[in-house]
Structures are given as structure tokens and as C-alpha cells.
Design brief:
- With 243 residues, the chain is of the alpha/beta class.
- The protein has 5 helices and 12 strands.
- The protein has a 6-stranded antiparallel sheet with strand order 4-3-6-1-2-5, covered by helices on one side.
- It starts with 8 loop residues before the first strand and ends with a strand.
- 40% of the residues are buried.
- The structure holds flavin-adenine dinucleotide (FAD).
- The site of flavin-adenine dinucleotide has 22 residues, from strand 4, strand 5 and helix 1.
Length: 243
Amino acid sequence: MELEKKPVKEFKSRVLKVITETPSTKTLVFDLSNIEFDFYPGQYVMLNVPYEGDILKRAYSIASPPTQKDTLELTIKRTPNGRASVVLTEYTREGDEFLIKGPYGKFVWVPSMGTNLVLIGAGSGIVPLMCILRYIVSARLEHVKATLLYSNTHYEEIIYREELEELDKYSNIKVVHTLTRSWPENWKGYTGRINMDMILKEVEDIPTNLYYLCGPPQFVDDIASMLIELGVDGEKIKKEKYD
Ligand SMILES: Cc1cc2nc3c(=O)[nH]c(=O)nc-3n(C[C@H](O)[C@H](O)[C@H](O)COP(=O)(O)OP(=O)(O)OC[C@H]3O[C@@H](n4cnc5c(N)ncnc54)[C@H](O)[C@@H]3O)c2cc1C
């Protein structure tokens, strides 16, 4: 099914708010009050980031749902020794302006594509998956079922932790966490990397769902191989690799 393309726009936008999500992650809330900007859940924008007299162009998935019209949220995790991500997470303040261009990307979901979703992400790979979840809730798509498997290194690094707890309370949304390097004493989630056992335990009717995988390239490839081995058709697996 070919979706109609959303028009690509280029516009300057002011940061209205900077939200601290985790010690290494911030959400920048951009002003959309003067522009009509539409996108599919899962898409990304290109951001021009000034860096030492240069302009770095970087892709960032849209975190806010398309039902939210006045602001656009991007969530950026600081990459160790990274350039743009350090500017965005450490030196960006309310009132700063950035050039934004988009939307882009084929990692999209709309209800006509399927209503049983499994979203699997690692670290900042949660961002487009959160957009999909926020869209399901804000558009009141109660007939859509979504399971999120979310992997992080440490508890403190779980992005949107409290909001995910709230989403898990919806009867059509299930949130499953795993932590790979350290975890609190009373941790109720999984530990270790996402593996076939976890998928078998947490995902119903494995071959029939639509899968959205997002994170580092190796993570996405590993999970895709597991799903294929579990009988999922490759066409039902959508991938977004953050390299
Ligand atoms: C479609 C898409 C969507 C994305 N969405 C998001 C998102 O929502 N949130 C998010 O946080 N990220 C996202 N990313 C990743 C993002 O685009 C950037 O890649 C990320 O922020 C790192 O950029 P940077 O400029 O900080 O790092 P860079 O400066 O480009 O560095 C990247 C890596 O290279 C290493 N490096 C840097 N310079 C050198 C050098 N001279 N020699 C050797 N190694 C070097 C750094 O140590 C670092 O590990 C997305 C990527 C894609 C492709």
C-alpha cells in the first residue's frame, strides 16, 4: 500500500521548552504556531545544528503525535563524543531557533496498515515508537493493540519512563522493559538483551502482527533475524536504524 506523501517543508522554529528526560536525554519543544506541518507517525525531520562555525544536518524522529498541531517535539540523546547531540542536549535554551526540514521516512504507521502492533526499541529508538503510541491514545484508536518492548542500559536512562507507566494502564497497550547493564533491587522488568524467549512470552500471535524496530543498526538487525526465525514475514517488519 502506497501512502500519499506529506509535503516536505522547510521552516525556522523557536524552542519553546527544554525538557530533561534522563541524565543524557532532552526533549526540545518547537513552535509550530505559524506553520501547518503534517506527518505520519514514525517519520523524522532534518535539523540544522550550528557547530563551531559549521552547520551539521542531523535526522531526528518526531516524538509528538500528528494530532498535536501547535508544537513539534524532538527527543535527543547525547551520543558520547557526538557533536550535534551535545549542542542540542547541553547548549540549547528556550528561544533558540533552528532550521527544520521534513517530514521524511518510510518508517510509518497508519491504522489501515494493521491494528496489531509490536514496537521494539533500544535507547533513543523509543522516539518514533512513542509517537505511534501517543497517536493511538490521542486519536482514541481503542481497536489498535500495541505491545512495546523497550531496552535500555540503566533504569535512569529509560526515556519517557513515567509516561510509559501511564500508557501501560490502557487496556490496548502493554509496555515491557528490559535493562542490560544495571537494574534496581526491586526491578520487575526483564534483565539482559531482548531475546527470543522474551518475545515468545510477551507477544501474542507472533506471525500476524506488524513490527516496528528502531535503534542501533546491530540491534535492529538482531531483532529482525529473531522475528524471521519465529515465523514473521519480512514484509511485516519495519526498520529504522539510527547510525
Ligand atoms: C532516521 C533517523 C532518526 C533519528 N532519530 C533520532 C532521535 O529521535 N533521537 C536521537 O537522539 N537520535 C536520533 N538519530 C541519530 C542522530 O541523527 C545523530 O546521528 C545523533 O544525534 C549523533 O549525532 P552527533 O552529531 O552528536 O554525533 P557525531 O558527531 O556525528 O558522532 C557520531 C559518532 O561518531 C563518533 N565520532 C565523531 N567524530 C568522530 C571522528 N572524527 N572520528 C571517529 N569517530 C567520530 C562519535 O564518537 C559518535 O559515536 C536518528 C538517526 C536517523 C538516521
